[in-house]
Amino acid sequence: PEKLDVVIFRENTEDVYAGIEWKAGSKEADKVITLLNSISTGTSHPLLSGQTGIGIKPISEEATKRIVRAAISYALQQGRRKVTIVHKGNIMKFTEGAFRDWAYEVAAEFPQVVIEGKQGAAEGSSTDRRGKPAQPLLVNDRIADAMFQQLLLRPDEYDVIVTSNLNGDYLSDACAAQVGGLGVAPGANINYERGLAVFEATHGTAPKYADLDKVNPGSFILSGVMMLEHLGWQEAAELIVHGLTRAIANKNVTYDLARQMDGATEVSCSGFGREIIRLMGSR
Question: Which residue of 11, 103, 137, 258 has the lowest C-beta tally within 10 Å?
Answer without folding.
Answer: 258
